Amino acid sequence: MGANVTGWESEKRTHFDEIVENYDKIRPKYPDKLFEDAIAFAGPGKKKALEIGAGTGKATTPFLNAGYAVTAVEISGNMAEFLREKFRAYDNFDVIVSAFEEAALDENSYDLVYAASAFHWIDAKIGCPKVFRLLKSGGVFALLRYNFLATHDEALDYDIHTVYQKHYFSYYTSKPTAPRYRRSHDEFGEPAEIFKNYGFEDMRNYGFDEVSLKLYDVAWSYGANEYIALLETFSDHRHLPEENRAALYAGIKEKIQKHGGHLSGEDVFQLYMGKKT
């Protein structure tokens, strides 16, 4: 058993170097309304933004198209090369290859600092004060991420959970919940949930005001192979011992095929924002 191991330790964030193409292809798209709300809160126009852990640019284009000059801080060299190629036609984009904690950046310089499904890799006790220092007065800190909310087939959900109990929770020490992803909207605004997703309980604790949390439901559907490809982009799954990982994927695939060949449900996307006043 991987005692005190979660698969999400900070040193494991470099695994994205190995999965660039699959990550860009299979990870879900953020809803347009989320970006509309973020831009409305931060203000439209030619502003200066910093993106923490840009990955393959899943959350970059809307800000570029809104006129923001975006500097991406990305620890993965392969991801950074992908970003440079993807946004080569934009003269308002730049990328720095570095961990955010170590990046040399000008303080009081940014109108917006944001991260999309990336801030959980940062030590919040370092990251949040640094974000505050980087922002101009009136600047916005925005955190985007998505979570599994529920599947549409409870029987399939339970069957998949039994596979996780055998091959995932036999290695990781986190406590299983049953079923694994069936959750309520009410959870997402709770301090414990904010802490689980971002490593801190409240932006207000770091000096931010006008704090808000918005949620967006998005339906999804995957075939068995697509779903396994999605799981392969998650650090905790990729860092299972090979025997556990192979058995987990085989078991999940068998359960999905048993229930008709597709798994469908809803994600809940989060937009968590605050201002430096």
Structural features, described:
With 277 residues, this protein is an alpha/beta fold. It has one domain: Rossmann fold (3-Layer(aba) Sandwich). It is built from ten helices and seven strands. 32% of the residues are buried.
Compile the SSE list and pairings.
Blueprint: H1 20-26, H2 32-42, E1 48-52, H3 61-65, E2 69-74, H4 77-86, E3 93-97, E4 110-116, H5 124-134, E5 135-151, H6 154-167, H7 191-198, E6 209-223, H8 224-231, H9 235-238, H10 242-258, E7 262-275
Parallel strand pairs: 1-2, 1-4, 2-3, 4-5
Antiparallel strand pairs: 5-7, 6-7
CATH superfamily: Vaccinia Virus protein VP39
Calculate the terminal CA-CA distance, rounded to whole Å. 47 Å
CATH C-level name = Alpha Beta
> What number is the mean pLDDT?
90
Which overall shape is indicated by the principal axes computed on the Cα atoms? globular
Low-pLDDT runs of 5+ residues are none
Tally of alpha and pi helices: 10
Radius of gyration: 19 Å
